[in-house]
Structure formats: structure tokens, C-alpha cells
Specification:
With 185 residues, the chain is mainly beta. It contains no helices and 18 strands. The chain is globular, with a radius of gyration of 18 Å.
């Protein structure tokens, strides 16, 4: 079958001006090339290292905002296209949130785990990120500022973080929390 490509930001989240991140593209084949597109325009060919390629964004500006996708090519033939990854560059105006996990960051498979994202702001919503995912796992609100995994499995392990925002006349963002590594035994 056709190869599938995953695309994600590492680390995930909205980036501040001057900040940095990397767009990662992963494909299970390792003999072709990735071409990165931005807003439908070809941006550049990426060098494969194993089955992945990265495009670094450093000293970010508004110019870096956009919709990115990866095409996987063998010669001139497009074998696969990734989903579209939205990259946003915004000033951070809210306090930095704190991510915590209960019962702890090392759990046995099958355990019940709760992530809490706490921010010193009365009506912010927060996104929970898992590195390697194209979209946030969940949107947390003041009413429900936690995210639970009822039967944890090995697929849930990884690096989590959260980032908060308020929706007024415009969106205001916080920095991304410190990351938290969930280990599933």
C-alpha cells in the first residue's frame, strides 16, 4: 500500500516571535525524498535521516505562520502526502501554565491517569499536547481543566505539555508548560 506520512511540530505549540521549533516528517519508507510545502507552495526538499526529516524554524517571525505539509517522493512521483500542520507565531501575554499528572509520571499499563493544566488566569482554555501528534490531544477549559486516560497503554507514553489561551477580541497565548514524560510499564 501507499506509505503514510506523519507530520508534527517538535516541540509542539504556538511559537513566540524569536522562538524556535522543528517541523518533523516521518515515513515508514526510507528511499525517497520529502518535499515541504507551505500554503500550497513548494518550500524545499528535506534530507532524510533514516525515515524522518526535519525543517528547523529558528528566530521565528510572522512569516513562518502558515499551513505546512510534506509530500513523499520517489524520483518525481508523489507517493504520499501528509495532513496539514498549522504553525502559529504569537506573542505570549498570559502566565506560563503548569502541567501535572496523577498518580505520577511512571504508571503501570491499565492505570487511570489524570493530567491537570493549571494557569493563574480566570478564564483561559488550555490545549494538551503529546509530542509526535499533529493536533492537540484535548482542549481543557476552566470547567474541566483535566484530561483523563482511563486505561493507559504503551501507546500513551511520551512527552506531554500544555499551553493556554484566552479568546477575547483576539487570541492571547501563554508559553508552553514544562514538559512531562509519561512512562508506562
Amino acid at each position: 500500500g501507499a506509505p503514510t506520512i506523519s507530520i508534527f511540530l517538535k516541540p509542539p505549540g504556538v511559537i513566540p516571535p524569536g522562538g524556535s521549533t522543528a517541523i518533523c516528517c516521518i515515513c515508514q519508507h526510507d528511499n525517497g525524498n520529502f518535499v515541504l510545502y507551505k500554503n500550497g507552495q513548494q518550500l524545499r526538499t528535506l534530507e532524510l535521516r533514516g525515515s524522518r526529516a526535519e525543517f528547523s524554524i529558528s528566530n521565528a517571525t510572522q512569516e513562518d505562520t502558515g499551513a505546512y505539509s510534506c509530500h513523499y517522493l520517489d524520483g518525481d512521483t508523489v507517493l504520499a502526502r501528509s495532513e496539514t500542520l498549522e504553525v502559529m507565531v504569537q506573542e505570549f501575554r498570559l502566565p506560563k501554565p503548569v502541567l501535572s499528572v496523577l498518580p505520577g509520571h511512571e504508571v503501570a499499563a491499565g492505570a487511570y491517569v489524570i493530567f491537570h493544566c493549571t494557569i493563574a488566569h480566570s478564564n483561559a482554555g488550555c490545549f494538551l499536547y503529546l509530542e509526535g501528534q499533529i493536533k492537540p490531544l484535548d482542549l481543557l477549559s476552566k470547567e474541566q481543566n483535566y484530561f483523563n486516560l482511563s486505561h493507559v497503554h504503551k501507546g500513551n507514553r511520551g512527552r506531554y505539555s500544555c499551553q493556554c489561551f484566552t479568546k477575547g477580541a483576539s487570541f492571547e497565548w501563554s508559553a508552553v508548560s514544562k514538559t512531562l514524560d509519561l512512562v508506562v510499564r
